[in-house]
Amino acid sequence: MRRAYLDNNATTPLLPEVIEAMLPYFGERFGNASSIHHHGQETRAAVERARELVAKLLGCRASEIVFTSGGTEADNLAVFGVTRVGDHIITSTIEHHAVLNACRHLEENGCEVTYVPVDGHGVVDPADVKRELRRNTKLISIMFANNETGVVQPVAEIGKIAAEADVYFHTDAVQAAGKIPVQVDEIKCDLLAISGHKLHAPQGVGALFVRKGTELEPVQYGGRHERSRRAGTENVAGIVGLGKAAELAIAGLECGDDQRMSALRDRLETELLKIECSGVNGSVSKNSRPIQAWMAGDGGGGAPPRLDGAKPRLHTYPPRVPNTTSIYFDGIEGEALVIALDLKGLSVSTGAACSSGAIEPSHVLLAMGLPPERARASIRFSLSKQNTAEDVEFAVGLVAETVGRLRQLSPVYRSTVPLEQTRAEPPV
Ligand code: PLP
User: Fold this and answer.
1) Where does ligand 1 bind, in terms of residues with CB under 6 Å?
2) Atom number in ligand 1 closest to CA 95
């Protein structure tokens, strides 16, 4: 059976070069990177080479990179590492659970947390962040790009607010790194998390950028690995894979991988929007806008000036990472569509959280103001640079046919969904 994989925000396949780079570290190069003999020195050198490459991807010093077991651990280390009882944290309603649940835990243990809302495009307003600053605010944690909609947040503007207020700024860049340029000095962040398996490295490895001078307490105790910031013998093969993936991502961004990916994503989106009663959640931007300018608070050009003199950000579509689109098909149960598509060879996801057997609509889409039934009718398509035009054609045909079939079977579709196109501008 032909299969196409369009769920790359869940995980990406390893690139052949990454596998090749890792292979010796499952065999003859097995040393513990903390050992002082030949075998240890060999793996230590490999870990340090990888650290240089990850640092290059993020535009920081190698000594500012802490290897972790993935994005969740990197986010947790950032959030728990700089906060203490009595501190106040500002985060957003659309964060990944790696940040949200860490914040909830802190709330239950003597910290205060403010969850700033997003607009209908799924964007945090930096003015809201600024307004929520308090005397005891210690940390702002706002993600770089959302995992469900791909929408990029104005992180450079938020970084400036944090720096002016002398508050730590963490950004979860798990869905941005490798897809768009991510440079820590542009964002002025103190902490930034990435995950290997979202950029063609293996699962179970990630990294946290920790700006020099940041007072970070470890969350696990043991040996003095990673300059006493993260105890535990390093996952050498995984780290080597992450280093190689970072090197390939830098080269890919230089040679336009992102533009090819966004052209495929845009084609997929344009075709899927021909299905009646469908629409995009978040933003339909085609990546034409300079992402750097957007992140720094420049409306990006072309937007009408606002009467109050504020920057015209909210009048235009925010940029997205080039691989993601979240689309609703009204009258459809997202999980049913995912299963039906899987049976025909297409892997996509809903982005919904499945807990204790109940399918809950995505907290991200609800936070953007979608009604629960539309959030449940949404599917996330996420590409990688390995996807082809044939994958897109295959997906378009299959989704159109399957949505049509499921709607025919639905006793409620005709009565609940108006026949005319209901695609509406998202509320701003
Ligand atoms: N943050 C974001 C935005 C993510 O999308 C994910 C994974 O989906 C994570 C954090 C967690 O990363 P990991 O799977 O490496 O723990």
Assistant:
1) 70-72, 75, 96, 98, 143, 147, 172, 174-175, 195, 197, 206
2) 3
Instruction: Determine the Cα angle at 290 with ends 322 and 395, to 5°.
Output: 15
Tokens at 166, concatenated: 């002398």
- Shortest CA distance to 180 belongs to which of 327, 313, 55, 58? 58
* Tokens found for residue 402: 């399957």
Nearest alpha carbon, ligand 1 atom 12: 71
Ligand 1, atom 8, lies closest to the CA of 10
Q: In ligand 1, which atom is closest to the CA atom of 11?
A: 8
322: nearest Cα among 245, 388, 266, 364: 266
Atom of ligand 1 nearest to the CA of 206: 15
Distance, in Å, from the CA atom of 78 to the CA atom of 192, rounded to the nearest integer, reads 8
Q: Do the beta carbons of residue 320 and residue 149 sit within 8 Å?
A: yes
Neighbour-count burial of 131, counting CB atoms closer than 10 A to its CB (0-12 exposed, 13-18 middle, 19+ buried): exposed
| Alpha carbon of 201 to ligand 1 centroid (Å) | 13
Tens-level pLDDT at each residue, the chain (428 residues) = 999 999 999 999 999 999 999 999 999 999 999 999 999 999 999 999 999 999 999 999 999 999 999 999 999 999 999 999 999 999 999 999 999 999 999 999 999 999 999 999 999 999 999 999 999 999 999 999 999 999 999 999 999 999 999 999 999 999 999 999 999 999 999 999 999 999 999 999 999 999 999 999 999 999 999 999 999 999 999 999 999 999 999 999 999 999 999 999 999 999 999 999 999 999 888 864 567 777 777 654 444 444 444 444 444 688 999 999 999 999 999 999 999 999 999 999 997 655 445 578 999 999 999 999 999 999 999 999 999 999 999 999 999 999 999 999 887 777 666 544 445 455 44
Is residue 354 annotated as part of the catalytic site, yes or no? Answer: yes
Instruction: Return the axis-axis angle of helices 257-272 and 389-409, rounded to nearest 10°.
Output: 30
What is the whole-number distance in angstroms between the Cα of residue 310 and the centre of ligand 1? 34
Please tell me the distance between residue 9's alpha carbon and the centre of ligand 1 in angstroms: 9
What are the φ and ψ backbone dihedral angles of 288, each rounded to 5 degrees? Answer: -80, -25
Model pTM? 0.93
